[in-house]
Amino acid sequence: QIKWPLNLYLAHPTISEEFVLCSIGTLFLSYKSYTDKVKILGIYVNSQVTNPLYSVVGTSEAIRWVNKSVRFIHNLSNSDRDLNFKQWLAGLIDGDGCFLLSKKGYASLEITMDIRDERALQAVKRVYGGSIKLRSNANALRYRLHHKEGLLNLINDVNGQIRNSNRMTQLNKICLKYNLILIWPEKLTKDNGWLSGFFDACGNIQLSPSSDGLSNSPVLNKKQKGADFATAVENRSQLVISLVHKEYNLVISYKDLFGGNINIVSNGQYEWSISYLKDRDQILNFLEFVKKYTLRSHLQKRFFLIPKFFELVEQLDAYQAPKNSMISKSWVIFNNKFQRRIHTNSGPFNQDNALIKLSSLGREEGEASSNLSPLSSEKVTVWGSSMGSGVGSGRLTKQVLEMYKLSNFQYSIVVGLVLSDGYINLDQKAKNPRLCFKQSLDKFPYLWNVFCMLSPFCKSLPQLTLGKRNHTITFALYFFTRSLPCLKEIHQLFYSAERQKIIPENIYHILTPMALAQVIMGDGQKKDRGLGLCTDSYTLPDVVRLMNVLIIRYNLIGTIRENRPGQYRIYISQKSMYNLRKIVSPYFVDSMLYKINSVK
């Protein structure tokens, strides 16, 4: 059966049971009729083929070739910046992503990255939609996109840029589903953002002890001074940039473009590497490339430290400076900063209620690159949600601490936490208070959600603690913020002179829907198809004041019940649960929706 017009180009003679076709560019072989007899191969390198270009000897009868010389032009009407982003995304997918097509025909995309690379995944999410979630039992994040419109936009953007043979096979299946044509990538050159995206996925940069000394360095071999130089070699760190992947054709591209070496590592993977002692000029060339085609993973910060490395090593001889000298201390500080594992500039997780995503293609805020044009993104964010994380940033001066302010959104979160399980600690010797929050280990998604929204005010990650309750060992996680002047107001509102927690008189104005959601997630209990609030630590007048706000401001029906002598709890009737869900469900973490009889 022959159909017109042409959809596939045949470049070489083909043998099958019923047809002998010559090199004609106007034939289309029905895919449905001959699926079991004909395969379309996308690459020439295949163990089934002996001489793919000029002969069919040794080739399976069920194979025909697609002409690689035929190119479908990918029309790009966007700016160079947008093209760089698409190329970067294709490289990221080639390294850490995969296209999926289920048995029922559902198409999707998944990208898995280290938890420190949230910023890179957020850049993809803002353009195409999708979701980002923590992987269970792994210190990693997974981005998923299965919405048809967003997936088609992504496919149109990366089609023609994908180079991993496995990804091309996966993408081809989805293209067939949506009646699209798979586009072959052009030859890889140095002016291609794909290289930075693939490096974000599979690359690494590290300082490690040198095993071969400094004798190979053209800069440092002039400074050898006997025993002193031997000591310098022992204390010297070797700067190494490397990339590991199992597909040789992709790894060799870096050697062809930037020099360096290729080695075979474990599991049959290939490693490309350049080191300071052997490839100093190649490192500088690669650094210039990264400045133009910026990285978006946590590796970006380390690349920005490379000029400082060259300054300390080549100009100041910091690696062999006297132990207690200022230059030696500077070298120690540099090493500590370089080895810091936490990406300190990644913003908090953007929740659906804190971010409205528009489809414009914009560069991520805070991305340092002088080669990109001004930010053109039109997305709307809650004020303060774009603040960078403070984790790992060390001590701050008094002047910097006084500049920290809570946005209205963050203020509501803190109010809700203090009303429930959180507390504000003010030591007698401390000038400023800090917020502390603790939850059992099984409530990790809730605690992590809160931490991500308040991470600009924290200097460390949540920590694990052990406890004992009724002869049973319990596990919990907790975090605390910095001691900040902006928390003084809330401390004065919620604590009496005797340091007892109270309900402030202005609770009507500060109990926002977000604050109420935090109270329910922390102290709420599903009870009799209604909801109970564990307000045991408050006095009866305080509980009455809180109950009045729920009745007057939110039109909820409720009662106050005595749980134990002197301990009172609020019970919200089943009749008000529908209204309550409408008020607080947009701010709820999925794992806590059961408390309000809701499923997302």
TrEMBL record:
Pfam families hit by this protein: LAGLIDADG_1, LAGLIDADG_2
Listed GO MF terms: endonuclease activity
Superkingdom as given in the UniProt entry: Eukaryota
SUPFAM superfamilies given in the database record: Homing endonucleases
Domain Homing endonuclease LAGLIDADG: 89-170, 195-308, 412-578
Swiss-Prot/TrEMBL keywords: Endonuclease, Hydrolase, Mitochondrion, Nuclease
Role: Mitochondrial DNA endonuclease involved in intron homing.
Protein name in the entry: Homing endonuclease
